[in-house]
């Protein structure tokens, strides 16, 4: 059995081809981002959806679609295979009969980042690496630390000064060496890391600078399409930080279409906070590259508070344009309302995750999503990692009572009337 059908990298900038067994991040010639290619013609001949039906439920059931060559190097905590949950509350509010939530808050470290780091750490292990570096606002650092330690790596995490204390503590709990990272713009971080690649040859795990992390996000397409009877949703809504999630998912849907496993692809919707939305601004202006925009300190959606995307966000914008999708910016008030709505669905989502539902609400009101369409909102992380945001979105109840039947009867009279 062929474990992987991956063949090579190509550079987005100069189209140069590189072998997969070389430990590189970006193109050594021009600094462009590298993309993994697969032998889809052979896959079409040798694979079918039936072959995947009996496999263990995890993202690794789709290993043929990833660049890892040898199963022995796989580092897994059971990531992927999260439920696609039909809406019972928000769908009625919005008049959508086929609204679903892909709940990655249930991942091993509580966020969708586990998909990417399971693959990236496994791939680095196969390359013979033993240590690595990433920066993080919280979720990525925790995931990187957990999977690194499972692999016997030495993880170093540069934690953004805006990260909440609980997320910082979780990163340290998983055994990473951490340093607080101060900056005025995301462009400073990107420049710093790109210089580290060029001058130190330091292998990194930052989305897109690392060429394989986003490949794991393709599993969104495989898992969702399989659950829907090998049909893609009409619309997929995804929060955007660096954008590895939406780019990977779009690539996965395109692969399935090329294989003939689905007959249509979804419109991809990218979501950012109103306070900092360079991708949304670029989309609204019809641009192919995004420039620095907004203030990352002015939103509760910390995990997606990026004021400048990596290499202008070209890949993210390409996914939105090519899919005939759109981008939405949402204010914090709408995000907090969406957190409450998701609570009524039984989902505890952090603000960045709830932003997907907030954006969908806006899109429905603007007539961009029809009532008969199948829509999937990705829930990227658990609200339990950002408890102060939950406290802010849901105030404490003023109701009180002493432990007596009479007071209980009065209370229920107020609550149930």
TrEMBL record:
Its cofactor is pyridoxal 5'-phosphate. Residues 75-381 form the Tryptophan synthase beta chain-like PALP domain. Keywords: Lyase, Pyridoxal phosphate. One of its GO terms (biological process) is threonine biosynthetic process. GO terms for molecular function: L-serine ammonia-lyase activity; threonine deaminase activity; threonine synthase activity. The modification N6-(pyridoxal phosphate)lysine is found at residue 113. The keyword Lyase applies. Pfam families: PALP (PF00291). Belongs to the threonine synthase family. PANTHER family: L-THREONINE DEHYDRATASE CATABOLIC TDCB, THREONINE DEHYDRATASE, MITOCHONDRIAL-RELATED. This is Threonine synthase. It comes from Paenibacillus thalictri.
């Amino acid at each position: 059995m062929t474990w992987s059908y991956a063949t090579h990298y190509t550079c987005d900038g100069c189209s140069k081809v590189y072998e997969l067994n070389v430990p590189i991040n970006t193109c050594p010639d021009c600094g462009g981002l590298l993309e993994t290619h697969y032998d889809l013609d052979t896959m079409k001949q040798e694979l079918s959806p039936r072959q995947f039906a009996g496999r263990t439920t995890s993202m690794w059931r789709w290993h043929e679609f990833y660049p890892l060559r040898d199963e022995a190097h796989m580092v897994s905590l059971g990531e992927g295979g999260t439920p696609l949950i039909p809406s019972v509350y928000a769908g009625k509010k919005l008049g959508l009969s086929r609204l679903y939530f892909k709940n990655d808050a249930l991942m091993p470290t509580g966020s969708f980042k586990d998909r990417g780091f399971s693959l990236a750490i496994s791939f680095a292990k196969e390359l013979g690496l033993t240590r690595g570096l990433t920066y993080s606002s919280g979720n990525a650092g925790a995931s990187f630390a957990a999977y690194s330690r499972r692999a016997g790596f030495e993880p170093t995490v540069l934690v953004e000064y805006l990260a909440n204390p609980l997320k910082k503590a979780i990163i340290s709990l998983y055994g990473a060496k951490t340093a607080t990272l101060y900056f005025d713009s995301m462009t400073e971080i990107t420049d710093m890391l790109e210089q580290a690649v060029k001058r130190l040859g330091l292998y990194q795990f930052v989305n897109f600078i690392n060429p394989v992390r986003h490949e794991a996000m393709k599993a969104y397409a495989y898992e969702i399409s399989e659950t829907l009877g090998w049909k893609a949703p009409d619309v997929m809504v995804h929060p955007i930080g660096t954008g590895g999630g939406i780019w990977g998912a779009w690539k996965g849907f395109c692969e399935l279409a090329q294989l003939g496993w689905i007959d249509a692809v979804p419109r991809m919707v990218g979501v950012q906070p109103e306070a900092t939305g360079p991708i949304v601004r670029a989309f609204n202006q019809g641009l192919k590259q995004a420039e620095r925009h907004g203030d990352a300190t002015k939103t509760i959606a910390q995990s997606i508070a990026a004021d400048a995307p990596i290499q202008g966000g070209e890949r993210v914008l390409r996914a939105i344009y090519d899919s005939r999708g759109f981008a939405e910016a949402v204010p914090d008030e709408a995000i907090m309302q969406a957190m409450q709505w998701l609570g009524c669905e039984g989902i505890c989502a952090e603000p960045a995750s709830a932003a997907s539902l907030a954006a969908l609400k806006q899109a429905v009101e603007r007539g961009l999503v029809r009532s008969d369409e199948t829509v999937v909102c990705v829930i990227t992380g658990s609200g339990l990692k950002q408890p102060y945001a939950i406290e802010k979105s849901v105030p404490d109840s003023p109701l009180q009572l002493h432990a007596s039947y009479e007071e209980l009867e009065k209370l229920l009279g107020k609550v149930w009337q």
